[in-house]
Amino acid sequence: MINLLTPARTVLIYFVFGLTWVLGTDSLLRWLSSHTPSMLWRGQYTKGVLFILISTSLLYWLLAKYKRSLESSETAYIRIFRQSPQPMWIYDRETLNFMDVNDAALNTYGYTLEEFLKMSILQIRPPEEVGRLLEAHKVLKDGFEDSGTWKHLKKDGSLMYMEVRTFATVYKGREADIVSVWNVTDKQQAFEALSQHKVLMDSMINSTEDLIWAVDDQLRFTAFNNAYHNAILHFTGVSLKPGTRPVLSADREELHRWEGYYRKSLQGEKQTIEESREMANFGLSTAEITFNPIINDGKITGVACFARDVSERKKQEIRLKRALDRYDLVSMATHSVIWDWDLKTNKVLWNNNLFTLFGYTDVSNNADWWKERVHPDDAAAAVKGLEDVISRQTEQWAVEYRFRCAKGNYRYVSDRGYVLYGEDGKPYRMIGAMEDIDDKKTYIEELKKVAHMSSHSLRRPVASMLGVMAALNKENLGHPDNLPLLAYIEKISKEMDEIIHDVAEKCNHIFVRTND
Q: Which H helix or E strand runs over 219?
């Protein structure tokens, strides 16, 4: 539909009317003057007057229609402005005061229209953004402008991130800007969180001495930390750049081997290898390297690699192996059960003497297995005593208790342990030895019985002999009264000899049984 209310259309209508009038009336006057010559002058006068009247009326009608069209358009635009779901406002370019604000902005910012109209656009900005806003306002352009993301404040003081777009216009006779904003707070906060996370991750990755790098499916470097970059630069002289695939070794065999590692992981295989090199002024250096496939949307797109120096660990492993070798030799040379208790995991390792001495073949490495085999009457001294040693943070533990064998019988053991503490003062390990002393206990008990028997059996004849000796005539041993006393001494001596032989026989029996 042709819009007759625009200025161009108005001029066109007036032009068509004027042209039609001139051509039409001139033709009519020529025809009339050919019949009545006096009509030419009167016709020209009448034509001019009628043209002015008709054209004035036409112009008035067209301008009135145009004005109504403008008012209708302005009303429509104002209605769109008011009812738009997008927060919008109009502000004065000179004073920066709000001139009009739509309902969406009222809801977003929490102010009423009356409050907004008493404010300037500076009052919805945090203090740190005011200077930036004033600087940006100095270089405002006409027409549409994307002003970027700004911080805005609600009435309650809460912060919002808004994307701002402006369009220069004239409103109520004043130069103004129409502003529309989009709330991108969630997006901005997510971006800031992601940025902070990236900065944190970069800091973490670059603060470690471990080497971290990644390659794509074409074996081009896609990422690496400072430690890896510096290591490659030091050993090869190559300064790595993302997206490149430099040759890092003159050894073709080594290059082929590393390419094989990458290719395996690109096929989905996770790998862990150890690489050892002889380093000047250091000795043998060993690195543990892991290769992990990078999977995006179910597709392997590269390999993430991590390398860390395990030279000290390897040295410790060598020392530990030597210690274990010595440990095995000690275990073979002693009849004690050697145990190693990890207090953090509550796991206990036992040597083979647990089977040799007590008959166990299926042994749990949980410490509760040992606690369950301590005689109930000895639990307080053994288990509780051990827990007290740990709680008091002392180092030595020693106790004797009865331990249940695989067949269900109990044997006396002497258990000793040493507690190891970490730098934090907490116990982390305990090492000890459990010795079977059941035979020794039996030997001691038998000896006690023998000692008890000999002391009581010998006391009577010794007392009798002392009494007889007191009755002897020591000044004249040949006196006839001494004869019966000497005979009695002989009898007592034989009785004592029998008792001594009996004690010796019992001691010999105990010794033989103990050594069987």
A: none
Burial label for 18, CB within 10 Å (0-12, 13-18, 19+), is middle
CB count within 10 Å of CB 199 equals: 10
**Rounded to an integer, what distance in angstroms lies between the CA atom of residue 307 and that of residue 275?**
10
Confidence band of 456 (pLDDT split at 50, 70, 90) = low
Q: In 418-514, which ranges are continuous DSSP H helix?
A: 438-471, 482-514
SS3 at position 232 = helix
In 115-133, which positions are buried (b, 16+ CB within 10 angstroms) versus exposed (e)?
ebeebebeebbeeebeeeb
- List CB contacts of 499: < 8 A, sequence separation 6 or more: 454, 457, 458, 461
Residue among 462, 463, 483 nearest 472 (CA): 483
Tell me the two tokens of residue 30.
């020529």
Q: Which two tokens stand for residue 341?
A: 């208790």
The model scores a pTM over 0.85: no
> Which run of H or E residues covers position 105?
helix 103-109
- Residue closest to 390 by CA, chosen among 430, 422, 423: 430
Please indicate whether residue 346 or residue 466 has the higher confidence score (pLDDT): 346
Instruction: Copy the structure tokens of residue 432.
Output: 């000890």
Q: Is 291 exposed, middle or buried (0-12, 13-18, 19+ CB in 10 A)?
A: buried
According to DSSP, residue 408 is labeled: S
Measured distance CA(80)–CA(210) in Å, rounded:
61
Top-ranked range on mean pLDDT: pick from 45-59, 191-205, 490-504:
191-205
Measured CA distances, 316 to 12, 175, 195, 321, 328 (Å): 100, 80, 41, 8, 18
Handedness of CA 201, 204, 207, 209 (dihedral sign): negative
